[in-house]
Design brief:
4 domains; 17-stranded mixed sheet; Immunoglobulin-like; 7 helices; about 475 residues; alpha+beta
Length: about 475
């Protein structure tokens, strides 16, 4: 019995050991999904950058620019749902999310440049010509020449428009990447911190302002949206929207004063610009400068004019400051299309006021198109009256056979025309508001009306029937004889 009891005791102990082992294994395997989830969470990027797609981008080109390897484009699909639904088709303006650690040390992209724009790398002694969409890193510099402009877009948000004859360097701080050092010249910044030789400009959220450094190292700040902290010689002044302030080298900022009001501008006259010419003589004549409280000690001398292909002025055609009294004689030849232009006054000391509201302008150098929808040329018409329909340029004056015809708001027209037997000609002419004229001749054949054709056919049938009856009667008469 003791043996059996001993055996039973051992069996119970072993059973308990197996039970404990099963519990441990169950807990272990059940915890694996949790561990995997935690590992997955740990492997996810802590921070994603929202980067805008530029014209001409593909996913492979995007990966080449930001990931240094075009073959890594499938990795982008892990963080993005392509708006078009086609990975091979990404459109300008689309936003793609990219993990910060994948982008490496890049800070900003050069998304616009005009004329002489140069870049200097941190470890390079010379300035070289920049390339559009070039990637910029810490301590890289951008320099613009005369009548030359550049625009930077920061990966972490915000942007900088660099004016002519300016020089900046990218100087990121531990807590933020979007920081630049303005050595000389002028820039316009959105949510970007700017450092100068003796001042710091720290913007609030959704801010928009210009900073200018002259030859004496005086910093001028003009705020167009939001509010901006202006720090110099240990003193801080907050400059609100619609105000400006100056700080001389190693001196505190002056008391903010109100910015000049935006000028009033009128739509351009038809003659010079609608034929593709845009010149400052015509422009300045349409700009009305309103009161400026500092006019005696800081008079208005120039007008800053911008012309762009879009209402946001991101696709700039030109960006020029001209003398308001004697603008240079230059002309900008414009291709056909829609433009927006605006202006701001510039004082003798370089203070730049607010821009006016954009004015839309359409350049149209071609005569109106004239399309005849119906009837088709050479058609056969079996009606006495038909409708002639077509399309032409909106606003054109249209004549059909010397009769004035209304053109609707979408350029469509319709009119009734009489049809004669034989060949018909309809003369159609359209003249736009600039005197350019297009003409078309519509030709078609007028055929007998369907009713007339039906009467003739009935007569033939009647004659045939009569002849048939007569023939049958003669046959019967012969048979009876």
């Amino acid at each position: 019995m003791r043996h059996n009891g001993y055996h039973l005791f051992n069996m119970g102990t072993i059973r308990n050991q197996y039970l404990g082992l099963l519990i441990i294994l169950s807990v272990f395997f059940c915890s694996l999904p949790l561990c995997a989830e935690e590992a997955s969470e740990a492997s996810r990027p802590n921070r994603l950058l929202e980067i805008e797609v530029h014209r001409g981008d593909t996913l492979s080109r995007f990966a080449e620019r930001y990931l240094d390897d075009p073959s890594r484009w499938p990795e982008l699909l892990e963080y993005n749902k392509i708006p078009s639904g086609d990975p091979n088709l990404i459109l300008p303006g689309d936003k793609l999310m990219v993990p910060v650690e994948m982008v490496r040390d890049e800070i900003a992209d050069l998304i616009y440049m005009r004329n002489n724009v140069r870049v200097r790398r941190q470890d390079a002694p010379a300035w070289v010509m920049a390339g559009l969409y070039e990637r910029l890193f810490s301590e890289d510099g951008i320099r613009t020449g005369s009548e030359s402009y550049a625009q930077l877009s920061y990966l972490t948000g915000g942007g900088v428009n660099i004016d002519e004859n300016s020089m900046i360097f990218l100087r990121p701080e531990p807590a933020r990447d979007n920081v630049v050092k303005l050595e000389v010249g002028e820039l316009r910044a959105r949510d970007v911190k700017v450092l100068t030789a003796s001042a710091a400009i720290d913007p609030g959220k959704d801010s928009d302002y210009t900073a200018r450094v002259d030859e004496e190292q005086t910093t001028t700040l003009s705020v167009y949206k939001g509010h901006v902290d202006f720090i110099s010689s240990g003193e801080l002044v907050t400059v609100s929207e619609g105000f400006m302030a100056r700080a001389e080298f190693n001196k505190p900022p002056e008391k903010p004063i109100r910015l000049p009001d935006p000028p009033e501008i009128k739509p351009m006259d038809d003659a010079p610009v609608n034929f593709g010419e845009f010149n400052p003589v015509a422009i300045v004549g349409n700009i009305e400068i309103r009161g400026w409280t500092e006019s005696e000690r800081d008079p208005v001398e120039n007008v800053h004019i911008q012309l762009a292909r879009d209402e946001d002025f991101s696709r700039m055609v030109f960006d020029k400051v001209v003398n308001k009294d004697s603008p240079d004689e230059w002309k900008e030849n414009l291709s056909d299309g829609t433009y927006w232009w605006r202006a701001a006054i510039v004082t003798a000391s370089g203070v730049r006021g607010k821009f006016s509201e954009p004015v839309i302008h359409t350049v149209d150098t071609h005569p109106p198109d004239l399309k005849i929808i119906s009837p088709q040329d050479g058609a056969e018409i079996r009606r006495r009256i038909i409708s002639v329909t077509g399309q032409t340029k909106v606003g054109s004056t249209l004549y059909v056979n010397d009769s004035l015809v209304q053109v609707d708001s979408e350029g469509n027209f319709v009119t009734a025309v009489n049809v004669n037997d034989g060949e018909n000609e309809v003369k159609i002419s359209a003249t736009d508001r600039h005197g350019r004229k297009s003409e078309r001749i519509l030709r078609f054949q007028g055929q007998p009306l369907r009713e007339e054709q039906g009467d003739a056919d009935s007569l033939l049938v009647g004659v045939a029937l009569a002849l048939s009856v007569l023939s049958i009667g003669l046959i019967l008469l012969l048979v009876m004889q």
